[in-house]
Structure formats: C-alpha cells, structure tokens
Amino acid sequence: MAIPLILDCDPGHDDALAIMLAAADPRLNLLAITTVAGNQTLEKTTLNARRVCTIAGITGVPIAAGYDRPLVGELTVGEYIHGASGLDGPTFGEPTVPVVEEHAVELMRRLLLEHPEPVTLVPLGPLTNIAVLLRDHPEVRSQIREIVLMGGSTERGNIAPYSEFNVAVDPEAADLVLRSGLPVTMCGLNVTHQALVTPEVVARLRAIGGDLADACVDLLTFFGSGYERVFGLADPPLHDPVAVARVIDPSLVECVRVPVAVELTGTHTRGATVVDLHGKTGAPPNALVAMRLDTPRFWDLMVEAVTKLSA
C-alpha cells in the first residue's frame, strides 16, 4: 500500500525534482504540497510549486501556502543559488494548478486527522510550518508516522561554516521538531552531497525528451552554475529528493540513530546541527541521521520519475 505523504517545501531547484519524485513514484500517495519561505519569499515558493505541478502534469494535489518568515528574526533567502524567482533557468508559462485558501498548517492538520492511517511528513525547507503544527496542534501527533527532513549536517554547513541553510533560516523551528519525541530522520549535507548532478545524469535526463525533461535540464544547469560560482563545485548536489527517496525505499539511505541538537545561541554556530556520532554527550538518541546514499539506485529512481511524468 502506498505511503501517505505531505511534502512541505520551498521551491527551489532541488525541491522541484523532489516534488516530481514524490508525485511519480507509486509507492507514495502525495496528499498535499505545502510551502514555506526559504529559498525565496513565500509568494515565490508558492508560485514555483504551482509552476512545477503544472509543467509536470501533477493535478489533484492541493497546494497551500504557509509561513512567510521564521519563528524568530528575519527571513534569509537563497537567491544566491536559486535566483531572483527561486526557480531560475527554464521559462515557465502561467501556472494552471491553483493554490487552496487554507493555511498550510491548517491543511496539514485536517489531512492528518482525516486520514485513516498515520501520514509521513517530508519537510524540504525551513521547518517553520512543521514546528507550528506540532506546537499548536498536539492532537495530530498520533497521526504522524514519521518526519523525514532535508536539513542539517554531520559536518560543515553551506550558509555558514557549520550551519546548513534550512536549519539556519529557522533554528528554533528545527530545535522544536528534533525535540518533539516523534520519529525523525535527518538527511543532511553529508549525505545529499553524495547525490551529485554529473554530466552523465544531465545526459540521462536530456535523453528522455519532451518539455518536462528539458525543463529539468535547464533547472539543473542553472543550479549547477550557482554551485560552481559560490562553492567551486562543478557538479551540484541534489539535496531534497534524497529525503523523498528515503521514504520510498529506506535501503537507499543508510542511517544511524544518534542524538542531534540545534545550536541556538552560538556566535559563530547558530543553526548548526550538533550530531553526536560517538556518544560524547550522553544524551539519548532522538533522530536517525542519514550517512550513506546508494547513488546509482537514487539516480535510477529520479530518472524513472521524470520519464513517467513525461509520458
């Protein structure tokens, strides 16, 4: 039976491919797409979710906008990687997929309570929406199967020396989610940097043919140019689909169960995920942390999804 799933995202080039993967794979039942400010402003990430669903032919999946700023402080966006629109590269027409009037948190709450079985939440951006859901609606906890997030790192960061973007944009939200007591899997930079968009990957996507595949190539080409300019990486890492892949087939993403804390006050380390791989803190484990990706099988899954949506 397909796993019911809600995707919370901030599209974003890698979010776009994650939406396609979640919608295409028959092992998932995509109940909703909710948006949050992160890679760009809420208005732009919501528009981008609509654009992706339109070009990929994803219909019947409600899209709802959530929070436009973090729980504390001002919003930082990822324009330096994702461009002014948040999804620079392809030329998109006017989206035909609508956005619902419900707030993202209210939509998630309703879907969780209405669904006959527990639902998996997959947050791919700042964790603001998920944190507010857990904080303000404790009645949904029993209806959450697990939370599989893209964020954090066991190693270095990408927006600051030790802080990954999604966690750094809203550290208080990430802290609340990781301390929730719910089953949490963290797919951080250390594993997503194993999903590199090589020229071979781009060639496989181009060979599919059609408007969607062409758009994916344009997205990844722009994304790659940003990573080369900012980080000196010729092949960009496709972060967000790794979390979706973990839900589809847990054997693709090898994890360890360890304590994870979020640094909230450090002068140089606010937003860092403190992953206690060697049990130095004595804290109880509170998360599964992704360590290794079966990269060839991951890309097979991703190419298969785009092929299916292109048919």
UniProtKB/TrEMBL annotation:
GO molecular function, one term: hydrolase activity
Protein name, as recorded: Pyrimidine-specific ribonucleoside hydrolase RihA
PANTHER family xrefs: INOSINE-URIDINE PREFERRING NUCLEOSIDE HYDROLASE, URIDINE NUCLEOSIDASE
Pfam families registered for this protein in UniProt: IU_nuc_hydro
InterPro entries per the UniProt record, alphabetical: Inosine/uridine_hydrolase_dom, IUNH, Ribo_hydro-like
Gene from which the chain derives: rihA
Key words of the record: Glycosidase, Hydrolase
Bilayer-crossing regions: none
Highest taxon of source: Bacteria
UniProt domain Inosine/uridine-preferring nucleoside hydrolase: residue ranges: 5-300
